[in-house]
Amino acid sequence: MALKFDTSFDPAYGRGVTVALEVLRVTAKNPSPFTFHGTNSYIIGRDTLAVIDPGPDDEAHFQTLLKVIANRPVSHIFVSHTHRDHSPLAARLKARTGAAVLAEGPHRPARPLRIGEINPLDASADTGFAPDVTLPDDTLVEGDGWTIRTVLTPGHTANHAAFALEGTGILFSADHVMAWATSIVAPPDGAMADYMASLDKLIARGDRLLLPGHGGPVNAPRSFMRGLKTHRKMRERAILERIRGGDRTIPDMVKAIYRDTDPRLHGAAGLSVLAHLEDLVARGLVATQGDPAIDGVFVPVG
Q: Which tens digit of pLDDT belongs to each residue from 255-280?
């Protein structure tokens, strides 16, 4: 299918929005080119609740969450990954509610930093986060009238997890799959090979509805994710064509491939191109001196 993004979304700041049976969405007011209208937190259950992705450490969002929780007990706080727009408020919410914090693990890069390399995404990482409970793939957590299955989806970050609400066909896809835009995959935080493998994993699941970390729901997940996969493959082909046509540096490729993209996103676009190039070099389709780097020179193979 042709990939069509859906940017029609009302964040409804300051209140909870029912998005499924006993599932409320609360959107933080932290809009940006990377977060769309803001980060979505989800509140699950009727009596004793679970919260998925409490969001940024923002006072207004914290107060809205407490208002929507409405003095009901919270037993679990699930965190999809450790970017600062998703995980920092977990500590305050835990202190207020006594809930356990669950996640795949602390923040870490998808690969070790290379000699002389600086992680440009350090500022966006919640490096102080540590869950009370670590979640291996396929872990089932039972609550009051709900069961959540962990579906590990590395790619956007090494510790990224999606959460399936068992028996409903609903998957909370966080930043791995969103209706409004493609996910940022930026080394060394993320890895393109991991992202593509996680995409295949979700396509195979066959969920009926995805509720993402930003923007509105994905209502036809399998066809949309197939479109995402095709989009990434087309981006890969575009990079190969630019290299075969004479481009040798990432800035030159970004200028051509992302000419219609908001210039504020060109830095992230360069990291996305690097993610593709890391994969292409590993597969022997592109060569570079040493390890692939943002300032490297790339040549075609064959």
A: 999 998 888 888 889 999 999 999 99
- The SS3 call for residue 90 is helix
The rounded distance, in Å, linking the Cα atoms of 114 and 75 is 41
pLDDT at 113 over 90: no
Instruction: Report how far residue 137's alpha carbon sits from residue 157's, in angstroms, rounded to the nearest whole number.
Output: 15
Cβ-contact 185, 199 below 8 angstroms = no
Is the pTM higher than 0.85? yes
Q: Which residue has the tokens 């479109």?
A: 227
> Which residue's entry shows tokens 């919270």?
74
Residue ranges of the alpha helices (H) in the chain?
Answer: 59-69, 90-97, 192-205, 221-244, 250-257, 266-282
Distance CA 90, CA 75 (A): 13
Whole-number Å distance between alpha carbons of 155 and 110: 8
What is the DSSP secondary structure assignment for residue 202, as one 8-state letter? H
Angle, alpha carbons 103-43-91 (nearest 5°): 45
